[in-house]
Structures are given as structure tokens and as C-alpha cells.
User: Which sequence fits this backbone?
């Protein structure tokens, strides 16, 4: 059943995309490879776009979702009338070796897709919100900054597989979407490169640590790549032909990106600026920009309108001090100012200067700061290895650059990077992942052209070969947990205990608490698996319970916990020399008789689920009952 | 191309230096990797 559901999702996305391309009159201007992959990219966005109003109307049911997929799938017949892509070259020995490697990667990704989800962010929100929406049958506003009240177009596409095929269909779907991204990259490469080079670049992409980390999980960045590629394709054609339908495609895809993450707004700005490169007078530029703008707004407006309706701030909580509703319970202007200051410390570690703009990729490749998350989940060495080849290639072909189809891609990449760096976005490298395939195409083509012109292939082969081997080994190590899970036939709980931090508390909570209880916890990675009501206690997402360091008071804390219906509290017992435990409000609540211990767990803390020995320690976690009759702070 | 040999050497040197520079940051990972592979 999960496989059938995933197939239905794929055909629906393909069908919706094919219908849109047909309505725009673009399906005659592309080969079949482009037609299929672009259809999927646009249809993937359209699917997420359509699920949202269905959910808001409270119609999330098996029948309605099947109907939606069926309607979309009807469009698939439009895909069979384009000229075929020139892929008919027989593979040589190198091509066959690459294909075997790719099949091996497919096997590794399948192992992950068939195992229970274990990525913390996915369990906290990417998979958790769709699961909660399905359980209530409707999409409701999530009163949480940063993780809840944000654009969720990609997460909307998780609802059909989850509601129809369960968890396995969901994890298979995330894997399939990431693989279709690689297929789209292959199609882009084939315009410029041989089949072997195209396979090699696609495989490099599939094994890049950030893709290995996020591709099979609910992380949205690898999926948003589809929108970037579709938008860039439309941009290239729009600049060349001046046809408004291409500008609409560019805008719609960029809008979908904005509907999937706030960062997509930067992409809309980057593609919008790139659209102005066009020659031919102000009038056509104006109309292209207008078509682009309308399409972008149409593709992305839903979640901004949703946020504005519920909080007053369309980009919640960015402008909350000025635009936010005064009577909001879960957030306040004071919290918003504090949040932005904290976010700066949490998400940015290098100054926004020209030197760091240039230096960031070098720092991220060779000696990344912890905040970049670029060591185990970075972009690998490929970009840096081929850099001089690409620079020499660009220099060599400088007279042809402006006419190249790759030029707008390069402009979009550069503009997005500059905007990302200077607007104060999170400096985690994976936030750049959506534009990485475009960057890979541009760099690889420039580097390979140089090597071809100068007959200087050996160092380039060495660069590509070492990258492939290194990344493949890394991918293999990452997948070991999953392979062991299936080969040893471990139970679900055994697997999750090894791969999800503090998962051991989940079976106990689910068995001992009920629908009338509500547990307070700050363990985001277990939320998806909880079957009882919970309150996620983080100062970064809500103001209902004051949890900011230095501002917590036991009496207020007790009162606020009661006001949000908390009956139980999950606490860590971490002794640190720099913390004054005599003043810790949680300790004071325990001493005041407000919290009584119900269950203690001795657990191990690990830094990496892939490499548990990288850093581990013991810790104690307690589950307490919040007393309502005997408490000093009553 | 002028200085073909020199460019060739520079490119080789670049590839080797970047590769070594990249993997050197993972030296602390050797034991944990061997551990999951069941070697140590």
C-alpha cells in the first residue's frame, strides 16, 4: 500500500504540473526530460498549494485526498506528447560504473526510507504538524514562533502520503522527491555535458552530506531545490524569448519557494532582479516583471496571509512589534524583540562583511564553525576542488558568457548568496542547499569546458573521483544504522532508542499518561511519537510560560504551567558548576512540593546518531507530576 | 595555452591540498567510524 500511495502522489504531482505547463503553453518548448521533471517540480508545489485550502476547510479525509490525487493524475496523459530527450547514447564502462554506484546509493536511501523517521527537526515539526493536522482533520494555526507559524507548503505535500499510506509512505515520498531533484539536475546537466559527466554530477549531488542528511528526512531544503531549478529554467527562457508565460513559470516556482520557507522571499528577490537583465526596452521588462510578480504572489501568498490573519504579521515574528495583534496570548512585542536578539546569537557567528562574504565558503569547507553545521552536514569538497578549473573556464570563454544559458543561473546563485549573507539569515550552510544544484551545473560546466579545451582532464578526474569515493563512503557510514536495523531485525523501539535522543521516555509516557494529561517537555525530537497532549517548553517559540534565562520565577512558572493545562513535567537533571541550583525555579518547585517525581530514567546522551562514540555522556531525566493541592506556590 | 605545464602543476597541487585540507578536519572521526564498523 505505501508504494501505491507514493506512486499516486508522484503521478498527481506530474499531472498537476503537466496541466499547468499546458495551460501556459510551454509544453511544446521542452524535451521530454524537461517536461517530466519540470512538471513534477511545478506539480509538487501545486499539490502542497491545493492541500492547504482543503485542510483549512476541515476536509482532510482519505476520500478527499484520493480524489485530489486522482484529479491530478489525469494530467499525466499530457506528458506523452513531447519530443524525446536525447539519452540514447549507450553507456560506456565509466557510465556503467557510475550507474552501479547510483544504484548502490539508491539502496542506501531506500534503507533510510523504510526505517522509522529519526531526524530531530522532522520529528519536531516537518512530520509532526502533518500528523497533528490529520488527527484533527483540519489545518489549524500553530501558535509557535519559528517552528509553527511559518510557511509550510512542502509539509502540505506530506499530508497525502501520511493520511493514505502511513509513515512508510511518508518517508518513501521524501526520498522519492529528493531523487527526482537529482533527476532534474541530470536533465539540466545533459544540455551541456556528456551522459557520464551528467551521471557523475548527479551522483555527487545525491551523496553531498547535506543531501544525505536532509534528503530522506522531512527537511525542506532538498525539496525546495525543485522550485529553484524550475524557476531558473523559466528565467533562462524568459530572458531569451521574452514570452510572458516563461516569466509566469519563473514567478510561480519562486512563489512556491517563498511558500515553503521565509528564505524563499530572498529567492523571489534574486530571480526578480535577474529578470531585469533582459534587453529590449522598458516596456517588455515591465510586463515580464508584472507577470513574474503576480505569479510569485499567487504561488506563495497562502501562508503569509494565514500568519497575517492570526498574528497581524505576515512574516511572523519579523515585524511583530509594529504589525502584530496586541491581544495575542502566545507572543508579545517584548518577546519579539528578545527573540530577534537571541536569534542573532543562535544563528549568526561571523560578521556580515565583504570579507566574510568571500571567506564563508572557505571557512565552511575547511574549518567550519559549529553554527554552520557544515562538517557532517555540509556541501563536501567538490565546489572547492573544481573552483580553479571553473574560474579558468569562465576566463577562457568570457566572450560567450553573456549568451550562455548558464549565465542567468549564475546570476541567480550569486544574488541569492549575497542576499542570504547580508540580510542576516541563519548562517547554517544547509539553508543554501536549494540553490546548490544550480551552482553545481554552472561550476561543473565551466570546469569541464576548460578541461576539454586544454585537454587537461586528469586533475579534474582526480577531483571528481575523490569526491565521489569520499562522499559515497560517508553516505555508507550514515546508512549503516538503517542497514543494521533491517539485517538484525531490531524492533521499532530498539531502533528509535539508538537513533532518537531520549526516545526511551516515549513508551512510558504513552503508556502511563492519558488524553486528559498534558506533559511539559523541551525535547523536540520526541514530539512526533507522543500520543498524549504535550506542551513544548522552549522560550524561543512561545510566551505563555516564561522560560527565558534569568526571568523565571517559581510562583509565576507554577501559575503559568497550570494555566496551559500542564499536569506533568519532564526535566533534565544536568549538574553544571556555573548554575546556581538553589535559585533554579524547577528545583524550587520540587522543594516546594509542587513537583513530585513519578519516574526516573538513566539515559545516554549522544552527539551523533551515526557515530555514537563521537561524544556521549550519561544523564538523568525525571517525569514529575504537577501537584495541584500541596504546593508552596499555590 | 601558455604555461600549460605550470597550470597543470598548480591544478594538481590545488586538488591535493584541498582534498587533504578537507579530510583533515575529520581526523577526530576515525575512532568513532571504526567503532561503528566494528573494527575497534
Assistant:
Amino acid at each position: 500500500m505505501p508504494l501505491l500511495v507514493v506512486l499516486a502522489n508522484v503521478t498527481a504531482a506530474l499531472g498537476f504540473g503537466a496541466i499547468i505547463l499546458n495551460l501556459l503553453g510551454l509544453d511544446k518548448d521542452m524535451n521530454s526530460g524537461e517536461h517530466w521533471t519540470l512538471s513534477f517540480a511545478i506539480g509538487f508545489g501545486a499539490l502542497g498549494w491545493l492541500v492547504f485550502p482543503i485542510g483549512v476547510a476541515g476536509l482532510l479525509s482519505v476520500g478527499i485526498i484520493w480524489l485530489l490525487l486522482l484529479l491530478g493524475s489525469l494530467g499525466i496523459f499530457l506528458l506523452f506528447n513531447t519530443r524525446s530527450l536525447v539519452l540514447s547514447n549507450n553507456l560506456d564502462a565509466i557510465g556503467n560504473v557510475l550507474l552501479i554506484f547510483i544504484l548502490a546509493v539508491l539502496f542506501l536511501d531506500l534503507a533510510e526510507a523504510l526505517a522509522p523517521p529519526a531526524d530531530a527537526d522532522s520529528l519536531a515539526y516537518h512530520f509532526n504538524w502533518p500528523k497533528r493536522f490529520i488527527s484533527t482533520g483540519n489545518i489549524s494555526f500553530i501558535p509557535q514562533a519559528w517552528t509553527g507559524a511559518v510557511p509550510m507548503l512542502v509539509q502540505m505535500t506530506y499530508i497525502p502520503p501520511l493520511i493514505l499510506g502511513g509513515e512508510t509512505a511518508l518517508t518513501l515520498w521524501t526520498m522519492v522527491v529528493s531523487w527526482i531533484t537529482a533527476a532534474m539536475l541530470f536533465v539540466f546537466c545533459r544540455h551541456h555535458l556528456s551522459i557520464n559527466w551528467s551521471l557523475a554530477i548527479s551522483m555527487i549531488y545525491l551523496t553531498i552530506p547535506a543531501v544525505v542528511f536532509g534528503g530522506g528526512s522531512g527537511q525542506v531544503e532538498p525539496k525546495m531545490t525543485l522550485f529553484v531549478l524550475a524557476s531558473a529554467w523559466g528565467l533562462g527562457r524568459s530572458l531569451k524569448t521574452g514570452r510572458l508565460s516563461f516569466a509566469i513559470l519563473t514567478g510561480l516556482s519562486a512563489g512556491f519557494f517563498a511558500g515553503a520557507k521565509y528564505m524563499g522571499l530572498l529567492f523571489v528577490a534574486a530571480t526578480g532582479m535577474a529578470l531585469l537583465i533582459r534587453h529590449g526596452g522598458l516596456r517588455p521588462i515591465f510586463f515580464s516583471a508584472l507577470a513574474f510578480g503576480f505569479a510569485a504572489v499567487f504561488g506563495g501568498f497562502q501562508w503569509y496571509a494565514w500568519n497575517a490573519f492570526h498574528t497581524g504579521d505576515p512574516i511572523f515574528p519579523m515585524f511583530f512589534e509594529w504589525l502584530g495583534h496586541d491581544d495575542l496570548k502566545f507572543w508579545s512585542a517584548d518577546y519579539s524583540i528578545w527573540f530577534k536578539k537571541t536569534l542573532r546569537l543562535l544563528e549568526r557567528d561571523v560578521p556580515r562583511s565583504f570579507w566574510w562574504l568571500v571567506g564563508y565558503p572557505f571557512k565552511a569547507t575547511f574549518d567550519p564553525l559549529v553554527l554552520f553545521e557544515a562538517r557532517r552536514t555540509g556541501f563536501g569538497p567538490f565546489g572547492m576542488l573544481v573552483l580553479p578549473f571553473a574560474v579558468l573556464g569562465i576566463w577562457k570563454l568570457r566572450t560567450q558568457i553573456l549568451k550562455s544559458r548558464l549565465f542567468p543561473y549564475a546570476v541567480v546563485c550569486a544574488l541569492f548568496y549575497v542576499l542570504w549573507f547580508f540580510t542576516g539569515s541563519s548562517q547554517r550552510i544547509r539553508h543554501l542547499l536549494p540553490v546548490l544544484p544550480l551552482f553545481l551545473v554552472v561550476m561543473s560546466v565551466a570546469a569541464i569546458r576548460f578541461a576539454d579545451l586544454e585537454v587537461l582532464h586528469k586533475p579534474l578526474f582526480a577531483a571528481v573521483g575523490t569526491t565521489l569515493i569520499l562522499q559515497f563512503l560517508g553516505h555508507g557510514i550514515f546508512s549503516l544504522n538503517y542497514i543494521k536495523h533491517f539485517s538484525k531485525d531490531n524492533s521499532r523501539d530498539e531502533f528509535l532508542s539508538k537513533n532518537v535522543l531520549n526516545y526511551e521516555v516515549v513508551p512510558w509516557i504513552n503508556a502511563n499518561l492519558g488524553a486528559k494529561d498534558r506533559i511539559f517537555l523541551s525535547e523536540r525530537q520526541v514530539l512526533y511519537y507522543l500520543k498524549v497532549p504535550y506542551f513544548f517548553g522552549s522560550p524561543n517559540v512561545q510566551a505563555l510560560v516564561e522560560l527565558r534565562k534569568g526571568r523565571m520565577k517559581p510562583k509565576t512558572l507554577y501559575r503559568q504551567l497550570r494555566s496551559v493545562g500542564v499536569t506533568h513535567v519532564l526535566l533534565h537533571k544536568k549538574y553544571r558548576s556555573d548554575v546556581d541550583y538553589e535559585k533554579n525555579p524547577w528545583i524550587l518547585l520540587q522543594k516546594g512540593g509542587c513537583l513530585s517525581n513519578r519516574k526516573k530514567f538513566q539515559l545516554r546522551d549522544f552527539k551523533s546518531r551515526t557515530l555514537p562514540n563521537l561524544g556521549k555522556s550519561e544523564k538523568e531525566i525525571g517525569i514529575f507530576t504537577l501537584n495541584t493541592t500541596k504546593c508552596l506556590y499555590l | 595555452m601558455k604555461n600549460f605545464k605550470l597550470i597543470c602543476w598548480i591544478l594538481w597541487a590545488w586538488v591535493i591540498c584541498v582534498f587533504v585540507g578537507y579530510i583533515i578536519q575529520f581526523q577526530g572521526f576515525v575512532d568513532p567510524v571504526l567503532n561503528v564498523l566494528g573494527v575497534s
Notes: Chain B is about 70% helix and 0% strand. Chain B touches chain A at residues 1, 4, 7-8, 10-12, 14-15, 18-19, 21-23, 25-26, 28-29, 31-33, 35-37 (CB under 8 Å). The two ends of chain B are 51 Å apart (CA to CA). The CA atoms of residues 14 and 37 of chain B lie 32 Å apart.
